[in-house]
């Protein structure tokens, strides 16, 4: 995307990292901040259009209020802005392959865009690699906010990432993601405790309403019954009331039987 030379000069390097504090001003916006604003808003708008998004997710206004990092790449001659990559941490509830729920705060890929005229020329790889090094993170330990098919193809090609467990939100976390024992969500413990007693045989996917926004997510080759749900609507953590009560009753009966046998043995007259 073309910008006047003085606007472009706000980006010192071929790949520059913009942080929210770079845009904060007290006594009026500086020339550099004005230039950054023009670049961010134009690239954010182009990204949203390329992804068919209803709202623009990268604007100077939103970025200033965030803790995100925005990587911006120029072409080799430093004459155009070619692409952007926005990352930031988010608290997420994620479910791993075996159904255990974790509460994690991974670095997330929030917006990624390379100008249409420059796609498939290696710019995406260049900016992505710079981000990995700068943020000190491996691609398999990132969470991806509703990646497009092009992005999925990119991740498969360069990092062999393809298989993921469908999540109760818009994020894709690949099977290779390294969950930490400490991150196990407490709600998961509650769910586990309920399992030996209840007769909850309903697959979780059937208890989670589908999330409209997720329908365009590419389906993982390994996940044949991919279904997605909004976090607020998920029933993952709540034990079914009926079976929970039944489980409680079973425990009480067992305890009574145990006490009776301790007192009277197996005398049939008692
Ligand atoms: N169709 C399919 N795959 C594509 C396409 C395309 N039009 N463009 C790039 N790719 C993938 C392919 O794997 C391609 O390898 P190939 O050419 O051998 O098939 C690889 O990316 C090329 O790698 P780069 O040249 O390094 O990537 P590029 O500079 O094209 O950037 C990006 C990749 C950012 C996904 C770019 O294609 C783009 O901006 N797409 C439109 C917007 C988009 O979908 N962004 C991701 C949104 S999801 C999110 O932000 C979390």
TrEMBL record:
Its EC number is 2.3.1.108. The record marks 51 as: Crucial for catalytic activity. Acetyl-CoA binds at residues 112-125, 148-157. GO terms for cellular component: microtubule. InterPro entries: Acyl_CoA_acyltransferase (IPR016181), Atat (IPR038746), GNAT_ATAT (IPR007965). It catalyses: L-lysyl-[alpha-tubulin] + acetyl-CoA = N(6)-acetyl-L-lysyl-[alpha-tubulin] + CoA + H(+). Residues 188-224 are annotated as: Disordered. It comes from the Eukaryota. GO terms for biological process: regulation of microtubule cytoskeleton organization. Residues 1-178 form the N-acetyltransferase domain. Keywords: Acyltransferase, Transferase. GO terms for molecular function: tubulin N-acetyltransferase activity. PROSITE patterns: GNAT_ATAT. The keyword Transferase applies. Specifically acetylates 'Lys-40' in alpha-tubulin on the lumenal side of microtubules. Promotes microtubule destabilization and accelerates microtubule dynamics; this activity may be independent of acetylation activity. Acetylates alpha-tubulin with a slow enzymatic rate, due to a catalytic site that is not optimized for acetyl transfer. Enters the microtubule through each end and diffuses quickly throughout the lumen of microtubules. Belongs to the acetyltransferase ATAT1 family. This is Alpha-tubulin N-acetyltransferase. It comes from Paraglomus occultum. The lineage of its organism: Eukaryota, Fungi, Fungi incertae sedis, Mucoromycota, Glomeromycotina.
């Amino acid at each position: 995307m073309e910008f006047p030379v003085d606007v472009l000069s706000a980006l010192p390097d071929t790949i520059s990292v913009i942080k929210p504090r770079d845009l904060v001003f007290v006594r009026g916006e500086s020339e550099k901040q004005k230039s950054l604003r023009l670049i961010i808003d134009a690239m954010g708008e182009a990204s949203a259009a390329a992804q068919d998004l209803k709202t623009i997710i990268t604007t100077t206004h939103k970025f200033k209020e965030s803790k995100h990092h925005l990587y911006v790449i120029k072409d080799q001659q430093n004459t155009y802005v070619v692409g952007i990559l926005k990352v930031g941490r988010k608290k997420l509830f994620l479910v791993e392959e075996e159904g255990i729920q974790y509460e994690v705060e991974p670095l997330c890929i929030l917006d990624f865009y390379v100008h249409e005229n420059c796609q498939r020329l290696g710019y995406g790889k260049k900016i992505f690699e710079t981000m990995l090094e700068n943020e000190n993170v491996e691609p398999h330990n990132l969470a991806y906010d509703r990646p497009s098919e092009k992005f999925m193809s990119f991740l498969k090609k360069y990092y062999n990432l393809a298989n993921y467990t469908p999540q109760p939100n818009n994020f894709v976390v690949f099977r290779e993601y390294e969950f930490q024992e400490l991150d196990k969500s407490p709600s998961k413990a509650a769910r586990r405790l309920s399992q030996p007693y209840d007769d909850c045989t309903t697959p979780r996917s059937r208890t989670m309403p589908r999330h409209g926004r997720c329908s365009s997510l590419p389906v993982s080759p390994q996940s044949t019954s991919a279904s997605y749900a909004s976090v607020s609507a998920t029933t993952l953590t709540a034990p079914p009331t009926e079976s929970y009560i039944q489980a409680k009753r079973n425990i009480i009966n067992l305890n009574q039987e145990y006490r009776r046998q301790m007192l009277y043995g197996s005398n049939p007259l008692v």
